[in-house]
Amino acid sequence: MSLPPDEFGHGEDPRYPRLNLADRQIPDDMARRAADLVETMGVLGQVEAWEEAARRGPGGRPRTFPLHALLTGFVLVARMGEAVHFSNVCDVLFRCISSEMRAELGVPDPPSARDTLGWEATYRNVRTRFHGLEDLMNPSDRPKNRRLDDDVYTALLEERSALRSDADRQEAYERLSWFIT
Questions:
Q1: What confidence tens digit (pLDDT) does each residue in 1-20 have?
Q2: Is residue 136 within 8 Å of residue 175, measured between CB atoms?
Q3: What is the DSSP string of 13-70?
C-alpha cells in the first residue's frame, strides 16, 4: 500500500516523486508556524544576550538576517524531511518561502538565478550565521571543517587551547547543554 503524498509531494508512491527542494514553495502559514515554534523555544533572548556579552567592540559587518530567521529555516528543512544542510536552509530561506514571509523574517531578497557569486555569498551568510551561533556554545578547542596534517592540527589545537580557560570551556558546555534541552 502506498502512502498518500503530504503537502510537499512526499510519499512512497512513484507517481509522487520527491521534488527538488529549491522547486518547492512553502505556504506562509507553515512558515509562520515554524517561526512561532522558534519563538516558543525561548532561545532567542538568551542567545542574543550571549552574543552581546561576546562582542569585543562596535566593529563587524551588520548581520544579513536575524537568528530567528536562521532557526526558522532549520525548522522548515527538518519539517520537510530534508537533510539539515546549509544549502537546504539557504534554499528554504531564499527560494521556497514567499517574499512576504522573507520580509516578516527579515531575510533579504535573493540574488538573481544566474548570479553565482550572489548565491555563494548567500550560502556563506547562512553558514557564517550558524557558526557564530555554534561558537557561543562550543566547548571544544578542536579545529573543525578542515582537513589538516597532523602537525598543523596539533599546532592549531594548542593555539586554540591557549586562548580559552577551563572556565570558558565550562561556560560553553553549560550553554550547549541549556540550548539542546
A1: 444 444 544 444 444 444 46
A2: yes
A3: -TTSPPPPGGG----HHHHHHHHHHHHHHT-HHHHHHHHHHH--SS-SPPPSS-HHHH
Cell, residue 14: 512513484
Please state at what angle helix 67-79 crosses helix 28-41, rounded to 10 degrees.
120
C-alpha cell at 179: 540550548
In the block, cell 508512491 appears at: 13
pLDDT digits (tens, 9 = 90+) for 119-162: 999 999 999 999 999 999 999 999 887 789 999 999 999 999 99
Assess contact for 119 and 111: CB atoms under 8 A.
yes
- Calculate Rg over the CA atoms of the chain: 19
CB 89 within 8 A of CB 77: yes
